[in-house]
C-alpha cells in the first residue's frame, strides 16, 4: 500500500518519527523504507577533534588534518570514485595542512571542472582532493591516513550517478562547514 513517508525530527538526543496512521505492517515497511535517508541526515556526533597524519604511497606527499577520531566517510559511485574505489571524509579547508609534496602533485579535472582531483605524480595515489560537493573543503582518502588516530569509520553512500538528488538528500554539503 502507498503511504506517505514518516516525518523525522531530532528532539534532544532522541530521533522522533511521525508515522501516518496505518496498519502495523505498513507502518514498519514505511519506517524501514525511510530509515536510510533519515540516518544519512543525522548530524555527526560531536567528538574530540584530533590531528591525523597521512600521505601517498611513496610518502612524497604528506599532510595533517584535524577531524574526529570517529570519521563519517562517503562511498561514492560517480564515474571517477567508482574506478578508484575512493572512500573519503570531508573537512573544511582550514582543517587541512599540506606539509610536503606540493611540487609532486598533479591535478585532473573533468565534467563541470569544479572538483580538483589531485594525485602524486610519482606513485599515482590520490590521498586527498577538492570535491565538487564541497569545493570549499578537502576530501581525504580514509586509507591514506597513518594508523593510530582513527577509532572507527562510518561509511555512508553517495549516489554519484544521480549527483543532484544525492547532494540534496545526504547532507554532504555541511561536511566542509565549521560546526
TrEMBL record:
Entry GO MF terms: carbon-sulfur lyase activity; metal ion binding
Keywords: Metal-binding, Zinc
InterPro entries in alphabetical order: CENP-V-like, CENP-V/GFA, Mss4-like_sf
Any one Pfam family match given in the protein's UniProt record, by short name: GFA
Source organism superkingdom: Eukaryota
Residue ranges constituting the CENP-V/GFA domain according to the UniProt record: 52-164
PANTHER family registered for this protein in UniProt: CENP-V_GFA DOMAIN-CONTAINING PROTEIN, CENTROMERE PROTEIN V
Family: Belongs to the Gfa family.
Protein name per UniProt: CENP-V/GFA domain-containing protein
Organism: Pelagomonas calceolata
Amino acid at each position: 500500500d502507498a503511504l506517505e513517508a514518516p516525518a523525522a525530527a531530532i528532539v534532544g538526543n532522541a530521533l522522533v518519527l511521525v508515522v501516518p496512521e496505518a496498519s502495523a505492517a505498513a507502518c514498519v515497511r514505511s519506517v524501514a523504507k525511510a530509515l536510510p535517508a533519515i540516518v544519512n541526515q543525522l548530524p555527526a556526533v560531536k567528538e574530540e577533534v584530533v590531528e591525523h597524519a597521512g600521505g601517498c604511497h611513496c610518502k612524497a606527499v604528506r599532510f595533517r588534518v584535524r577531524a574526529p577520531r570517529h570519521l563519517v566517510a562517503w562511498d561514492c559511485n560517480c564515474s571517477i570514485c567508482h574506478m578508484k574505489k575512493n572512500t573519503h571524509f570531508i573537512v573544511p579547508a582550514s582543517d587541512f595542512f599540506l606539509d610536503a609534496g606540493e611540487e609532486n602533485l598533479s591535478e585532473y579535472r573533468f565534467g563541470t571542472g569544479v572538483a580538483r582531483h589531485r594525485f602524486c605524480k610519482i606513485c599515482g595515489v590520490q590521498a586527498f582532493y577538492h570535491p565538487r560537493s564541497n569545493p570549499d573543503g578537502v576530501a581525504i582518502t580514509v586509507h591514506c591516513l597513518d594508523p593510530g588516530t582513527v577509532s572507527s569509520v562510518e561509511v555512508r553512500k553517495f549516489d554519484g550517478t544521480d549527483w543532484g538528488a544525492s547532494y540534496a538528500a545526504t547532507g554532504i554539503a555541511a561536511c566542509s562547514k565549521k560546526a
